[in-house]
Design brief:
α4 packs across α5 and α6 packs parallel to α7. A hairpin with a 2-residue loop joins β9 and β10. The chain folds into two domains: about 160 residues, Rossmann fold (3-Layer(aba) Sandwich); about 70 residues, no CATH class. It is α/β, with parallel strands linked by helices. The chain is built from nine helices and ten strands. The model has no long low-confidence stretch (mean pLDDT about 90).
């Protein structure tokens, strides 16, 4: 049996009387790409925030790398988060920093890295996303797709074991979306990273998912491969794939 790196049991989260997550159960193995599909407001982003301890759930258990995150204090939670990478919808680059400086930023905490080693890691990360030529550019000089790639390079620089992708292809044209999806697959293969991919983009899901879950009204209503869900007899689930 492959080791589970994510194990969520009976997760619930309320905001006031609004039950955003009702009873989420989810497991994920090392090296697996799991796509979370659902309409806006179905609880996808809240799920990710619970997973990394940014929001405290009201009930249920979350285990990452065999550690119950509710039992971790600030320092241990920070250590755990270092094993996780994020790619946000906006790519979240610092506009006042060059591409090189954006990539160096997460490494500055590491006291044992020389300037030479930092430089080598920056170049390697940019090569992984096909953007080594952009190293001295500013984010304002980059297209949306290039900004996403730089955001992904910055995520990769810490060699995470899981990457959380929040709408990775939103706002991109179909060709660039496909390139980003392919890049996510290449990274999975090269580094054996697992990923949770939150997306509305069916083509991205088709290309990247080993397995998918569908959220509706704060509950997981379906799980399976892309092909299994695409041919679902449930009209609401099938509607995603039309």
């Amino acid at each position: 049996m492959d080791s589970l790196i994510v194990d969520i049991k009976h997760l619930k989260k309320l905001f006031g009387s609004n039950e955003v997550l009702k009873d989420i159960n989810l497991t994920m193995k090392k090296g697996e790409n799991l796509v979370v599909l659902g309409k806006s407001g179905s609880g996808k982003s809240v799920l990710i925030k619970c997973l990394v301890g940014l929001i405290e759930p009201d009930d249920g258990n979350i285990s990452l790398f065999d550690q119950d995150i509710s039992e971790l204090n600030g320092e241990k939670l920070n250590q755990l988060r270092k094993r996780i990478g994020f790619l946000f919808q906006s790519a979240a680059l610092y506009d006042s920093m060059s591409v090189r400086e954006n990539l160096e930023f997460p490494l500055r905490d590491s006291k044992d890295l020389s300037e030479l080693k930092i430089d080598a890691l920056v170049v390697e990360a940019l090569k992984n996303v096909g953007l080594e030529d952009a190293i001295d550019k500013m984010p304002s000089e980059l297209s949306g797709g290039m900004r996403k790639r730089v955001g992904l390079a910055r995520t990769l620089i810490l060699k995470p074991e899981i990457i959380f992708y929040d709408e990775p292809t939103t706002g991109l044209d179909p060709i660039t979306s496909r390139e980003i999806s392919q890049l996510m697959l290449d990274i999975q293969k090269k580094y054996d990273t697992a990923a949770i991919i939150i997306t509305h983009d069916i083509e991205c899901a088709r290309l990247t998912a080993n397995r998918m879950i569908v959220l509706k009204d704060g509950m997981s209503v379906a799980e399976g491969t892309f092909k299994e869900l695409e041919s679902s007899s449930d009209k609401w689930i099938a509607s995603f794939f039309k």
